[in-house]
Design brief:
The structure is a homotetramer. Helices cover about 45% and strands about 20% of the residues of chain A. By secondary structure, chain A is an alpha/beta fold. The longest helix of chain A has 18 residues, at about 95-110. In chain A, helix 1 packs parallel to helix 2 (about 35-50), helix 1 crosses helix 10 (about 230-245) and helix 5 packs across helix 11 (about 285-300). In chain A, strand 5, helix 5 (about 125-135) and strand 6 form a beta-alpha-beta unit. Chains in contact: A-B, A-C, A-D, B-C, B-D, C-D. At the A-B interface, helix 1, helix 2, helix 6, helix 9 and helix 10 of A face helix 1, helix 2, helix 6, helix 9 and helix 10 of B.
Amino acid sequence: MRKFGIIGIGHVGVTIAYTLVTKGIADELILIDNNEGKAIAEQLDLEDAQARLDTTTQIKIQDYSELKDVDILFLTAGKIDAAKETGNRWAEFEFTNAMVKEVAPKIKKSGFDGVVIDTTNPCDAITQYLQKSTGLSQQQVFGTGTFLDTARMQRVVAKQFNVNSKNIAGYTLGEHGDSQFVAWSGVTVNSHPLVEFAKQQGKDLDYTALEEEIRKGGWSVYQGKGYTSYGIATCAVKLAEAVLSNAQLECPVSCYDKEFDTYIGQPAVIGKNGIEYVNPVALTDDEKAKFKNSAETIKSKFSTM
Amino acid sequence: MRKFGIIGIGHVGVTIAYTLVTKGIADELILIDNNEGKAIAEQLDLEDAQARLDTTTQIKIQDYSELKDVDILFLTAGKIDAAKETGNRWAEFEFTNAMVKEVAPKIKKSGFDGVVIDTTNPCDAITQYLQKSTGLSQQQVFGTGTFLDTARMQRVVAKQFNVNSKNIAGYTLGEHGDSQFVAWSGVTVNSHPLVEFAKQQGKDLDYTALEEEIRKGGWSVYQGKGYTSYGIATCAVKLAEAVLSNAQLECPVSCYDKEFDTYIGQPAVIGKNGIEYVNPVALTDDEKAKFKNSAETIKSKFSTM
Amino acid sequence: MRKFGIIGIGHVGVTIAYTLVTKGIADELILIDNNEGKAIAEQLDLEDAQARLDTTTQIKIQDYSELKDVDILFLTAGKIDAAKETGNRWAEFEFTNAMVKEVAPKIKKSGFDGVVIDTTNPCDAITQYLQKSTGLSQQQVFGTGTFLDTARMQRVVAKQFNVNSKNIAGYTLGEHGDSQFVAWSGVTVNSHPLVEFAKQQGKDLDYTALEEEIRKGGWSVYQGKGYTSYGIATCAVKLAEAVLSNAQLECPVSCYDKEFDTYIGQPAVIGKNGIEYVNPVALTDDEKAKFKNSAETIKSKFSTM
Amino acid sequence: MRKFGIIGIGHVGVTIAYTLVTKGIADELILIDNNEGKAIAEQLDLEDAQARLDTTTQIKIQDYSELKDVDILFLTAGKIDAAKETGNRWAEFEFTNAMVKEVAPKIKKSGFDGVVIDTTNPCDAITQYLQKSTGLSQQQVFGTGTFLDTARMQRVVAKQFNVNSKNIAGYTLGEHGDSQFVAWSGVTVNSHPLVEFAKQQGKDLDYTALEEEIRKGGWSVYQGKGYTSYGIATCAVKLAEAVLSNAQLECPVSCYDKEFDTYIGQPAVIGKNGIEYVNPVALTDDEKAKFKNSAETIKSKFSTM
């Protein structure tokens, strides 16, 4: 039986819930939110959908004790308005920090011993803080991190060549935030190394501009719809499925890095334990420096928590 | 190739879009909204999701000429805030009326000749108005109507007996609004006629209260989350799939009734032409009177459009 | 985590396996067959598929000890050739009887404590025998029974009226074999009682012929393809999903009947415990007699096991 | 509306049919086989399944005129027994050659103008012959070719490192037959070039043995189950979905190569036209020689047709 919990059912949380229900992924789903009326309404709306779906999901709300045997817990609480004003995810810090302080003990108390997937912002810092405050292992707690920024890189690069974004390989690494970067040296387009391929095709790519478009991908979506939901929810659900099926699937996520002693977006292998192991990929010296810089940025901000 | 259009990408429209994309139902999808920034943002967010999905959907925005060969067009534009203030879907009338006046000629001009599924409020009147103003046939234009209210009836009755809502048969009929009613005489629970079954089980059901819970189902969801999305979007997508596969699937929807010369929620068979035929079911005299009353309510309100 | 086991990977078993893998339903899947080479080949073939699917299923073979924490165990071993010669499922009796004698102790020894769904023939007798010989509860062990024959009734009746088989309600009851019968009194077509509706439509239905077409549905498929697989596998998977999600879904299946002290096809509610409870539906006296006759047929054949 | 045709409903064809039906991918499906009884039986079995599925697919059989507006036509007729005796796909040549001679004029006559996906053996030669004899364009006609052998390479390599086969990139190229080869220079494991990575991990891989395991992957499956079905059907369906959604998805398939004037397995981009363009990838000199050798093998065998 697949049992999921979601703490925070704003746009991201509830899109995850809808995805789990409409695709028949979840057998049981626990929704928790500070706004009880919202939890009741989302449960009703999802239950209205179920008479029209082929599958059934048991939905319960507001009960932390149900987390005891949850397999995957999504932490999605956020305060998007704070970030919107500034265009910087650290603006949500104060809110999410307080939120984690509130929920971590409750998670701990429930006896939860599954895997936590964190989508909150600033993702790397909050995920680390969550791991420390719940006492769950570093394997069990990870963040979506640059899995979404990598999807954005795939979208942006694919558009340059009119190819499918699923055929773009490579990574956006580092902070799920301003210090992130694309490791261009490893990006491929239909199996061709990007940089060479662009030259062959007579395309004069402005990598700085592309990187800005990727980095500001969330911001572009925010500006138009006031939040982001579909990209991030799809990423989170994919990671959850990898855990449940012990898929040993490699994806860039926010996980603990020993060298820099911080959570940071980097390739890792996802399985039943959450993070099975980190999978460091070859970087140029310049990319290594960017990774270090991003790690230090996260750390210094984290130290103020 | 399955090609869908959505006019109005508020909460309902975009949930339909996400469902079509995340479940791989749509090959091509056209999004149109008065707020171009919103259309751009939703396209970006859905494209961010696609690098993580197994299927691909081509998404285009803001181009009415693309409707020419669209198979299914969802009309979902609404102004939920108007309805929220009053708890009555007719409060959206002025807005949606003006919206239809604006979009109908554009649909017509595009050469669109597929099926329109309307989810806007007041659903019956707007669907009828849309049919008339586009010149599309009465078969081609129908509304979700009481398909959603029937799902709510299934949810509410199922909960009384702790059974699955998919095992509740029967209909909510009439207006997708206050004059709707449940045809209790035909409702069954796990194949048992409800009224007898409740007695056998020693359950003293308050049908008036249940009906109020069903009728106010949307309102309950509105109050908690500010809109409804998952139930209605799931209903709309199910109807669209029935059209595409020529499923001859019987569902209660808002369609034209000859006797009362109005669109109204009643069972009909859905296939490649949209409404294949109306499927009138047995009603008690009391239920017939309620149906007539609901039809007259819709008509009288429609006459003011 | 959803963990499934399948004992017997002939056409039915392996179609169940493929369905669980291709639709991403199973996280882990254990395949067991007397023919080890077949088990190895099916595992390879399913693993070849997985590089092209979005989801991952861990597949293991031939290890009874893995059944310990399996949620759903399908028993699908059969010897179709025996039945083919005679057109009677009891012809498989000797083979499946011996098979159950062989596998029941191994299931027991594994510590398995989930739900068994049996598709073998003669279904009712073998399911009962399996329940007794494993010591699992009557709730935990049930057969697909007339769930498939009911689907065939839906298909056959739907074709008479050119409607969707999903809109045909009612049941085929009794033995998954020659003594089965359709409870015509409860069959509905698009919510209309069948018998009246046919008259209204001026259709002079030959119920005996229809029932023969339904009863011989499996035989018709056998004759053309040498076995049946898609109908039965789809039924079995649907029941499994109902157990996993504790769906409280009502379906006709082969389960224990107290009055007649035998397993027999009748409506029951499916949930996390397997059979939650039997849901007897109204029958005419004639139908009651047929049910009794069918029960006695099963019992008398069972007594020879 | 998505309309598919399948000519040849042996194990591969009918598994494709079941996949299209059970996943709700097809709105309409035409099954054609020399054995009419088999076609009738498969239609019945698939229709038995549909009362239990959420989606509907219209299934028709044995009518070539229905191919007129089919979007995707699968050619899957084969004579596996011939190949089994020898372990060589060319042994099916005589049968499939005769089959194509029979069906090509019928396809042509129907007015079919969609995309053909060929899974028959010997795949490259038969696909080319089919293209020539139908007069359809080289874009419209392609074969699954080494898309399946690439999946097998992914499976075999993944197992060496206990990683997910979806994280293995690279290609098996050339003939879907004995002269195929793995382009090891481009294979990556979790983004690491295979050859280096294996060394780093202290793994001494025997590439010749791995290649033999890949090449004989089909043979291994044949030996255990008497045919292959799940891997190949999943590959074929994935390609079909790429065509329908104009996905511009890069995959290795059997398509026309100008340099060698033959169909051969190589990376190409799949979209609404079928083969949008060939996407040649970097090869070592040794790999180039193997590709040339494989092309010549196909050509010389083709010349005997």
